[in-house]
């Protein structure tokens, strides 16, 4: 957030607080006018809190990583679809939330046959946004009551977190048709692949062309070709412009 956005609200609020203090100490002040001043102060506080929220959220969005799907749904031993686990998403976004003054909390309300999960995105200036999801308890498999509720809560938290932060996951539009894919041998494990995918997305979001090219040059041709699929068409177009290259191919 720039200095102007940070300083102007403070000066304006201090001015109103001084005015209210002076008015409150004046025995002749009209109570109705004092109430109006207090209402105005509250509106100003809320307005600047929302401005700060929107400003920091926009900056955070430019840095938010693309999350790789490592969770698997198997049917009779076969991978039918993949998904990004809540714990993976949460760990990836924590540093960006903290950097920009955000925090997320969840509220859970259980009914006999359903559960409602509310996600709240809070900013340190006071503004907050929230969304909720109501699901039936997941009674698939051999889950007991507690496990079925826990499964539904975990599912809801994952999707709410992505919705609140506008998170992008790899193969997002695949609709489960790819059946999951293994990490190619060109990577030294999934953590290495996630690191490069996340960092490239962050550098692209910050329009850091030198940093992007430097990191890109560390990859082999097979790694470049594999990781290219993590990004959507708009990202690919802008990344190719940053690199001044054509779409990478396997060796």
Protein architecture, described:
This protein has 251 residues and is α+β, with helices and mostly antiparallel strands. It folds into three domains: 3-63; 69-181, Double Stranded RNA Binding Domain, CATH 3.30.160; 183-251, no CATH class. Helices cover 53% and strands 17% of the residues. It is flat, with a radius of gyration of 24 Å.
Keywords:
disordered N terminus, 53% helix, 17% strand, two-stranded parallel sheet, alpha+beta, three-stranded antiparallel beta sheet, single chain, 251 residues, Double Stranded RNA Binding Domain, 3 domains, flat
CATH hierarchy: architecture of the largest domain? 2-Layer Sandwich
Radius of gyration: 24 Å
Alpha-carbon distance between the two ends: 44 Å
Q: Which residues sit in consecutive blocks of at least 5 with pLDDT less than 50?
A: 1-7, 172-180
**Strand fraction band?**
15-25%
Number of helices: 8
Residue-averaged pLDDT: 75
How is the largest sheet built, in terms of strand order? 4-5-6
Give a nutshell description of this structure.
By secondary structure, this protein is of the alpha+beta class. The chain has 3 domains: 3-63; 69-181, Double Stranded RNA Binding Domain (2-Layer Sandwich), CATH 3.30.160; 183-251, no CATH class.
């Amino acid at each position: 957030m720039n200095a102007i956005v940070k300083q102007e609200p403070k000066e304006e609020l201090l001015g109103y607080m001084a005015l209210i203090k002076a008015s409150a100490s004046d025995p002749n002040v009209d109570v109705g006018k004092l109430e109006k001043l207090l209402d105005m102060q509250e509106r100003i506080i809320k307005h600047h809190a929302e401005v700060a929220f929107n400003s920091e959220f926009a900056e955070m969005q430019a840095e938010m990583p693309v999350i790789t799907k490592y969770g698997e749904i198997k049917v009779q031993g076969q991978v039918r679809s993949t998904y990004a686990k809540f714990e993976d998403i949460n760990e990836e976004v924590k540093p960006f939330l903290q950097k920009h003054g955000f925090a997320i909390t969840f509220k859970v309300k259980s009914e006999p046959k359903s559960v409602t999960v509310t996600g709240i995105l809070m900013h340190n200036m006071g503004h907050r946004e929230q969304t909720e999801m109501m699901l039936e308890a997941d009674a698939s498999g051999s889950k007991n009551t507690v496990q079925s509720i826990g499964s539904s809560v975990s599912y809801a938290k994952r999707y709410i977190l992505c919705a609140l932060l506008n998170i992008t996951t790899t193969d997002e539009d695949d609709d489960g048709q790819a059946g999951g894919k293994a990490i190619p041998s060109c990577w030294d494990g999934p953590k290495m692949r996630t690191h490069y995918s996340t960092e490239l997305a962050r550098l692209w979001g910050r329009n850091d062309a030198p940093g992007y090219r430097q990191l890109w040059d560390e990859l082999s041709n097979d790694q470049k070709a594999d990781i290219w699929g993590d990004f959507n068409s708009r990202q690919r177009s802008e990344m190719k412009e940053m690199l001044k290259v054509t779409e990478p191919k396997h060796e």
